[in-house]
Amino acid sequence: MAPVVVVNVVGLTPRLLAHMPNVAKVGAAATLKPVLPAVTCTMQATLLTGAMPRDHGIVANGWYFRDLGEVFLWRQHNRLIQSEQLWDAVPGMRTANVCWWYAMGGSSDFIVTPRPVYFADGKKDQDCYTRPPSLHDDLVAELGEFPLFSYWGANANIASSKWIIAAARRILTRERPDLLMVYVPHLDYDLQRFGPDAPQAVAAAREVDAALAPLLAEDATFVVVSEYGITNASRPVDVNRALRRAGLLEVYTQAGMEYLDPWASRAFAVSDHQIAHLYVRDPADLPRVRDIVAELPGVDEVLGQEGKARYGLDHDRAGDLVAVADPDAWFTYYYWLSDDRAPDFAKLVEIHRKPGYDPAELFMDPDDPFVKLRAGAALARKKLGFRYMMSVVPLDPAPVRGSHGRLPDTAADGPVLLGPFEGESYAATEFKGLLTQLLKG
């Protein structure tokens, strides 16, 4: 039986598929109905388990870990998923995971996932984690170093997706696993930068389609899926600043910089694209927090326990309340009231220290006339082996033009599923069953 290869082209919609002839050849495009929130970690967990967030526990790309008193985004341990996964659905199946999330500690026979090196002197360098360990040196020898610094941030480009696709093709042709799943991130970049209707979005779709052509020409059964569609959005909603002005969110100060104090705050938000999880320490504050957030321009609805249950989001990790943005709006993580009090990581590509998602990382500060010069100097220091600060991210979120997370208003703006399937529409929770049947033949 030919291997089954699942290609996750994040951000792919019916609109963009019209510009991707190689991908379109995989099969008829069916509508895929995402779960709330329609973000990477939640949707991938749903696709892998066939379960709702209330069961698999991945309520966002990150959340407030109440037992630790910390906000963490982009954790990588597979055990965070609390339901049985596709990797283990068919006994004896050999599997390969190339950059699907929650790979580390998973049961796949072959794993490749981004994993920077954090040196003892504070330097950071690009790299990836592999299983088996020998795969790392083989991939680097054949493909060069994993281009982590093109994976996300102002310089994000097609290079990382090309490397990921080449790694997947190498594993497919040499190891012939029964199931290979590969994540291709490139459409995320320019759709958030410029919006899905911009010429840059079409150009990005064509780049991805061309990069995928060699992989799609291999001897395998292909399935193409996407997690969400990105829609035009240009209204940032400063939910944490509203909570701070109301006296509910607290900060502490070090070296003149302000940091979110989740231990002391009566309420704060973990913002994640068009969804914000609101953590409220005292249940007596819930009505007030709901009213404050619901009245903010750009907020569509605020879900309590009943609302979360309606969307299958009623898990202990979720916020006590969950805010959903209007179609053209999204939530910032910003909590400082004056930019001169912002923490130094606010102007960096720093996906782990920020207590929320920051799409402004996709831009260099347009108000800084020396931003490219300073970026070049930082890169020079990096190449010479010195510590460096790539402090180029704007504190003004105005350039962002696309977002996702809420359920799509139309199928044309939602994710798709292509492969040897006969239906015209599927729920994301059906994906695991479809793949399991395909693998069983």
UniProtKB/TrEMBL annotation:
InterPro entries: Alkaline_phosphatase_core_sf (IPR017850), Phosphodiest/P_Trfase (IPR002591), Phosphonoacetate_hydro_insert (IPR023116). It holds the Pfam family Phosphodiest. This is Alkaline phosphatase family protein. The lineage of its organism: Bacteria, Bacillati, Actinomycetota, Actinomycetes, Streptosporangiales.
